């Protein structure tokens, strides 16, 4: 699957799910992403780090009842890359149908 | 490309698209819309404040402002507890313009109420304006809730 719009960073199942989860949202908390994906903290952290390194997601820290909470949101670059990736997947499906 | 490879590629792409739909829906389901009772109380407080200020009754103004602030904090907290916040599709410019328009409208309604009361002796006018605002705010909150639920319904399809 080689194409200019096909993003190999996003396409990995867990990272694709993270981007898809964040797409309709302004931001989501770490625990919510972990619960929806059904993965461990370490696995999620690893994928989030890769997405952050690519500049696709950004994080914001806040304190609720003295506990630190991490919130994530898609950056403009990440949103664009995700939209293009989805378009590419749709194009593949339509072409091969 | 052989037929088998084509089929495999198609299957993988379709599975990825299905997974995207499923996750988008899961994200939206986590968003808690403003509970109708919270929206109703907020609308009622704002409407009451406009009505009382229009009628020249300032005794309860401070307590109403405090209650409105508490309601706004409760709504923000509602999102924080859910762990997600819904994406506002409106642009920042539209939001700023809306706020800039809403503030003068708020004062204008109070002034209209005061004017109708003092000039034409329509004592009911500020309360009618307040009631009108409550209805408008409730309709906005209800339509936002409906649009949220229809969005979830559309995702299911």
**N-end to C-end Cα span of chain B:** 33 Å
User: Biggest sheet of chain B: strands, sense, closure?
Assistant: none
How can the largest sheet of chain A be summarized?
3 strands, antiparallel
Order of helices and strands of chain B: HHHEHH
Concise structural overview:
The complex is a heterodimer of chains A (97) and B (157). Chain A is an alpha+beta fold and 97 residues long. Chain A has helices at residues 8-11, 13-22, 30-37, 41-53, 76-96; strands spanning 25-29, 57-64, 67-74.
Characterization of the model:
Chain A is built from 5 helices and 3 strands; from the N terminus they run ααβααββα. With 97 residues, chain A is α+β, with helices and mostly antiparallel strands. Chain A has one domain (8-92): Arc Repressor Mutant, subunit A, CATH 1.10.10.10. Chain A has a 3-stranded antiparallel beta sheet with strand order 1-3-2. Chain A is elongated and about 50 Å long. The two termini of chain A are 16 Å apart. Chain B is mostly helical and 157 residues long. Chain B has one domain. Chain B has helices at residues 3-30, 36-54, 61-82, 92-120, 125-156, and one strand spanning 84-86. The radius of gyration of chain B is 23 Å and the shape is elongated. The A-B interface holds A 1, 11, 13, 16-17, 20-29, 31-32, 36, 64, 86, 89-90, 92-93, 96-97 and B 6-7, 9-10, 12-14, 16-17, 19-24, 26-28, 30-31, 80, 82-88.
């Amino acid at each position: 699957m080689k194409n200019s719009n096909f993003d190999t960073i996003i396409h990995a199942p867990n990272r694709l799910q993270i981007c898809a989860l964040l797409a309709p949202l302004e931001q989501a908390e770490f625990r919510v992403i972990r619960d929806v994906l059904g993965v461990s903290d370490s696995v999620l952290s690893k994928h989030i780090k890769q997405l952050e390194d690519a500049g696709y997601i950004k994080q914001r820290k806040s304190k609720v009842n003295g506990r630190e909470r991490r919130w994530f949101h898609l950056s403009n670059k990440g949103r664009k890359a995700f939209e293009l990736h989805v378009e590419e997947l749709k194009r593949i499906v339509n072409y091969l149908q | 490309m052989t037929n088998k490879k084509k089929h495999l590629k198609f299957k993988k792409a379709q599975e990825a698209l299905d997974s995207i739909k499923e996750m988008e829906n899961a994200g939206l389901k986590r968003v808690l819309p403003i509970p109708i009772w919270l929206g109703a109380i907020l609308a009622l407080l704002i409407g009451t404040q406009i009505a009382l200020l229009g009628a020249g009754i300032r005794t309860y103004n401070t307590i109403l402002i405090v209650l409105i602030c508490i309601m706004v904090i409760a709504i923000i907290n509602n999102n924080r507890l859910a762990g997600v916040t819904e994406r506002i599709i409106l642009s920042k410019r539209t939001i700023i313009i809306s706020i800039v328009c809403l503030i003068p409208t708020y004062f204008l309604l109070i002034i209209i109420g005061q004017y109708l009361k003092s000039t034409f002796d329509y004592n009911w006018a500020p309360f009618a304006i307040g009631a009108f605002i409550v209805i408008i705010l409730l309709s906005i909150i209800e339509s936002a809730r409906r649009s949220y639920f229809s969005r979830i319904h559309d995702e299911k399809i």
